[in-house]
Amino acid sequence: MSQLKAKIHETLKNESLQKNYYQATHSAVAKNRIRAQEPERWESLRQDAYQIRKKTIENLPIFLEKAEASLNARNIETHWAINAEEARQICYKLLQERGIRQVVKAKSMLTEELELNDFLEKVGIRALETDLGEFIIQEAGEKPSHITAPAIHKSASDIAHLFEEKFGLPYTEDERVLTEFARQKLRDDFLQTEAGISGANFLVTEDAALCLVENEGNIRLSVSIPPLHIAFVGIEKVVPDYASLAILLELLAPSATGQDFPGYFSMIRNVEPNKEIHVVFVDNGRSDLWQNQDFRELLHCIRCGACLNSCPVYQHVGGHSYGWTYPGPIGALLTPLMRNKPGDELLPFMSTLCGACTNACPVKIPLHHLLLKMRHQTKSRQAKPPLFSAGIKAFTKTMLHPRFYSAVSRMARILLKLIPGENLPIPCMNKLRHFARPAKKMYRDLK
Amino acid sequence: MAEAWLQRFADAEYIVAPSGSCISMVRNHYGKLPLSPHYKEIFEKIRHNTYELTEFIWKYHQDSYFPGLFDASVTYHASCHLHREIGVGDIPIELLKKKTGLRFLPMREADRCCGFGGTFLLKFAELSNAMTQFKVTAISETKADYVCGADAGCLYTIDSALKKINSQTKTIHIAEILAAGLIE
User: Fold this and answer.
1) Which secondary-structure segment (H or E) carries B173?
2) In this predicted structure, what is the pLDDT of residue A443?
3) Which of A7, A302, B56, B153 has an alpha carbon 20 to 30 Å from B9's alpha carbon atom?
4) Is A352 within 8 Å of B128 when comparing Cβ atoms?
5) Is some CB atom of chain B closer than 8 A to the CB atom of A429?
6) Strand stretches in A138-254, DSSP E
7) What is the DSSP letter of A120?
8) Hey, are the CB atoms on A317 and B113 less than 8 Å from each other?
9) Domains of chain B (ranges plus CATH)?
10) d(Cα A207, Cα A191) in Å, to the nearest integer?
11) How confident is the model at residue B184 (pLDDT cuts 50, 70, 90)?
């Protein structure tokens, strides 16, 4: 059994885990008020967002130059990292030069992609996650299971057990008590730490502004209290102007959590006295993706998680089954392209192509069509087993000759009627499914 | 195969199929195939005359549509390609509701995938089973006499799972309901 199938099996056996995924994602989709109540406005916002992202990504090199110039004009230093190693080294150098041994971290999927925490630990720097979900999974020694809700797979009871074990907090499933405990614990960290590390949701290139979206206020604290702020920005995160930003913002929170607007929205534009801000532009496979005309559209993604929330496969198998930073339909596409480990090529096949993702995507990435395209490309690279090729040949021949097709299907009907018992001889299907007998009359014989 | 299909239907005034998936293939995917100019021309000519059955009835026979009798409770599975790729919306439900004697029972998450997905069913059998189980639970909750849809793949998947649990709900193609009480 492949690693992927082993993980699927493990998750499917765990009913409470599936319940956690289902309830959280389902309620996020259900809460999207604009989509439910103002469908026309929702569609027009999506269309605008699609145009904005298309224009931005098509002209990405120009916007990146503009972004750098406008950041530098505001005394925000810029760095460029071609891969994860370079990004980590830039960060390490900045911290080492200032003798910093501990950092507070704002939630960032990019730093997950860069495996920054593991690296920092190895070089003796403590990284403290300050987002509640990230805090929980860091304590549990796990990885995020969702792009915007990293601890979505944990129930209140899981968290209560964890806090009891790790911190000796008396067992309680009261979310307020649990949250307040984490809040108090983190408060001192913010005050005593000299560097904050964040990602970025958007970077407005016109008159530079680093934009951060969150619900807890921890990002604002992480980037404003410590004297040094290092922001990792994927090169696709640029937004041309504030009008475009407004449209993307209007779609982001409803798509992610179903809220009309996020709890906190921070725009960082100026460096305060005695402070430093460093922006690290990260490529890590993105310019290769940009060169790839077949899948360039994946760079339009604004990492909202709507495709995960709407995906029945994600709801069943959960985030960890996908095996890398980005799960769900977007992850099934990004992982084979950006990481490309043996086994990743299976991910695009783990979908029924039901199209719920494409339907949900706020920037209209045709996700399920891209999954299909990737399947074609994978298939054409692989050597075909002779039996498979012969089967396809026979099928095509049959379908091309109506009389022959008719004869074959009549024969198949007889054979299917002859099979005894209630199960087809395919073991994996028999657990749930009962063998369906052919109809009394064929469709083509109906008059 | 696409070229053979196009040749066969080249002169048709309307092409109607009782399958959302087939119509979506023609409408949304034939355009991406490397067709020769001759077939491309046929495709451009007929693509807009290709309809899914309920869509066709709604568009051309809404007024002349004679509903007929179907005395049973029915729930409806909104199959993925019919619902999202063709976008028929509530048309099938509206047609069902017109039938005399038919009691329509809505299903929760009616547009959620049944888990079929072509070869997915075999490649990821365990996952497919889990998805079908979800669908069958939603169907059972309605306690309807029939569950109908407009895609054979889904109906097969749902039917085989319903039979396994000895459910009282039977699977039926929406065309069979729409035709009921008309022929006899």
Assistant:
1) strand B170-173
2) 66
3) B153
4) yes
5) yes
6) 195-198, 202-204, 209-214, 228-234, 238-239
7) H
8) no
9) 2-60 (no CATH), 66-179 (3.40.50)
10) 30
11) very low
Closest CA relative to residue A189, chosen from A272, A106, A123: A106
| pLDDT single digits (tens) A5-60 | 999 999 999 999 999 999 999 999 999 999 999 999 999 999 999 999 999 999 99
Q: Which of A189, A181, A185 is nearest to A105 (CA)?
A: A189
- Describe chain B by its helix, strand, coil percentages, rounded to 5: 55, 15, 35
Q: Which position has the higher pLDDT, A86 or B47?
A: A86
A157-208 tens-digit pLDDT: 999 999 999 999 999 999 999 999 999 999 888 999 999 999 999 999 988 8
Of A216, A215, A211, A218, residue with least CA distance to A196 = A218
- Closest by Cα among B125, B2, B63, B184 to A424: B125
Q: B127–A400: do the CB atoms touch at under 8 Å?
A: no
User: How far is the alpha carbon of B177 from chain A, nearest alpha carbon, in Å?
Assistant: 14
Distances (CA, A) of A353 to A50, A370, B84: 21, 10, 11
Cβ within 8 Å, pair A434-B121: no
Name residue, tokens 């797979």: A153
Beta partners for A338? none
> Residue B88 corresponds to which tokens in the numbers above?
């028929």
User: Which tens digit of pLDDT belongs to each residue from B89-146?
Assistant: 999 999 999 999 999 999 999 999 999 998 899 899 999 999 999 999 999 999 999 9
Distance CA A280, CA A94 (A): 11
Q: How far is CA A285 from CA A56, A170, A279, A290, in A?
A: 18, 46, 18, 9
Number of neighbouring beta carbons within 10 Å of residue A159 = 22
